[in-house]
């Protein structure tokens, strides 16, 4: 195959891979990169092979200018919008170049644009798919560079090919369905002359291509480059805490929930597949991973005040929160270790105490829990205290112990950790958590239909008709109304024609369309409980996650965001089945009114091949994020430098310790009956040290003389056993020395063959050394066969080379200039 064709195909593949990397980075905006990929392959056939579509340089420059103007208006926006605009511009310019006749200039421009596409793609997305795509991209880039080098050098040494190459730049303004007959110059040569492997290229280059040696060499270079890159990436010291995930990716995407959210926020979050955190639950002590049958709730924050005008929930106006350090748990209950690794490419929101953390609740300290984690026991919110380390971003990972109460009523109760005797807390519970908003004039009830439904449900409690229903019974009846009895439907998209704009969205949801996502269900249940004087608040966080059977963890993503309800049960309203002494301050009772039609985010593996592949890919994605994207100075020190120091340096610390050596000498001398004093100078020790050094110097000199005497004899005796490349071709360098002594010096610009040919020509012109002309020709041929052909000399051939060298040595000795005593 022609070198040009190989180069054209390789450059088109390079452009296609760059476009695919952009497609991975842009996610949902990947139509244009895929079209550019198709254009790259079409250009090989339409432009390079058939020559049907060829853009002249002037027309291509005009098209590029139009592309720049077309992309100019996309630059006004957020950072990610600007990068996408740059990606589009790179694609436009790339397509324009692909449909031009290929010259050195065009190849360089395509290579540079492809590299810029990789840079932009890295800023948009650094997932494992991006990393895997870099491997074929690097191999293709190395192949393109090798082919481009051969193509350029062939043009440099062949004037006809150079003229044909330059003539390509002067085609008509636009060529479509051009004639297949090649254009010719005045000498009759084709203007589209090709660099063929059997034609203009030297024979050695043609053999390289036809035998596939070049591609094998490219593969070796790619593997070596990959290994060297990995070593440099992990070994080169980082001098700050920045990681790749902070510099690129999602531009600081926010996750979690702030101290206020609107009813429309959750629907947008639930449509995102973005990774938030990885959670592993394991037994304390044994470390055995627990895979719960239920979906765990990872609490974020709690909201208590609803504003009808803005349709927004906020934390509330409690002045005195109970903030405490996370302490170790007390005995008498089973606990599991909860290890959470966060996505550093995202920003967790902040609380008054610091960065918001997600966790099952209540949480207690393990042996590795950071002392900076604090617990707002009033709101049930965990935070990383606001210091220098947590000022910008959440911790990479943290550990907490949580009670293991997977099922039953006991598992839905959380002890209230704020003293009930506190007046501020009682006011928070009795007023904030039971307040039902009024209309904008504060005159009429805002939720008449919701109140009516709540009253009916409070009376519809099965059991003893003579007794007043308990708060737990009312709460469970209302929860069951949403999940089973009320014909409610879970949906992220509420049809506009079903909503009544004159009603509050929560009222409209309960009375009319009965369709919404989890935040609607939680808001409605909280307000319905408040109408019955049952304190309630909305809790937001994450529920479940995709359980990975390979890594044995829950991968929690944005789509697992969830909202549920907590109602406060004072000690006298606790269910009779629980022990009152376990809840001296009452308890928070978790209620989840979202119906079962909500898609379960906890994907349990069914054992199919596809599930296994997906688990492996997700595990690889998280490994890539932890060990590549999030690699900063702290992780490098902890994961690379410290293990190497512990395993390689510490075992030899005794060999490098001054105190250890001093003690060794003291013990040795003491065993000989010589005891050193603790003074800073000792005459005996000084004399002893000088004698030891003198003995070491004598031993060194003796060894050096022995090696210098034995090495030439050993090399002469055993050198033929292990011949190396330099040894096999060493006769040529000896040949150059002999010729130099006879007056022939090789210039640095001469090749070995050119030098020998000059020596032979000089011998013939001067009629000297005629007997060494034939040996010189034979020796240079043997040298080239060994050096470039990989030939290994047989013993008989080695003997022949030795005879030739002896003949040349005799002739050069005779031709050496005579030296006198006086010059």
From TrEMBL:
<feature type="transmembrane region" description="Helical">
    <location>
        <begin position="32"/>
        <end position="47"/>
    </location>
</feature>
<dbReference type="InterPro" id="IPR025403">
    <property type="entry name" value="TgpA-like_C"/>
</dbReference>
<feature type="transmembrane region" description="Helical">
    <location>
        <begin position="130"/>
        <end position="151"/>
    </location>
</feature>
<dbReference type="Pfam" id="PF01841">
    <property type="entry name" value="Transglut_core"/>
</dbReference>
<feature type="domain" description="Transglutaminase-like">
    <location>
        <begin position="510"/>
        <end position="595"/>
    </location>
</feature>
<feature type="transmembrane region" description="Helical">
    <location>
        <begin position="680"/>
        <end position="703"/>
    </location>
</feature>
<keyword id="KW-1133">Transmembrane helix</keyword>
<protein>
    <recommendedName>
        <fullName>Transglutaminase-like domain-containing protein</fullName>
    </recommendedName>
</protein>
<dbReference type="Pfam" id="PF13559">
    <property type="entry name" value="DUF4129"/>
</dbReference>
<keyword id="KW-0812">Transmembrane</keyword>
<dbReference type="InterPro" id="IPR038765">
    <property type="entry name" value="Papain-like_cys_pep_sf"/>
</dbReference>
<dbReference type="InterPro" id="IPR021878">
    <property type="entry name" value="TgpA_N"/>
</dbReference>
<feature type="transmembrane region" description="Helical">
    <location>
        <begin position="218"/>
        <end position="236"/>
    </location>
</feature>
<feature type="transmembrane region" description="Helical">
    <location>
        <begin position="83"/>
        <end position="99"/>
    </location>
</feature>
<dbReference type="Pfam" id="PF11992">
    <property type="entry name" value="TgpA_N"/>
</dbReference>
<keyword id="KW-0472">Membrane</keyword>
<feature type="transmembrane region" description="Helical">
    <location>
        <begin position="106"/>
        <end position="124"/>
    </location>
</feature>
<feature type="transmembrane region" description="Helical">
    <location>
        <begin position="59"/>
        <end position="77"/>
    </location>
</feature>
<dbReference type="InterPro" id="IPR052901">
    <property type="entry name" value="Bact_TGase-like"/>
</dbReference>
<dbReference type="InterPro" id="IPR002931">
    <property type="entry name" value="Transglutaminase-like"/>
</dbReference>
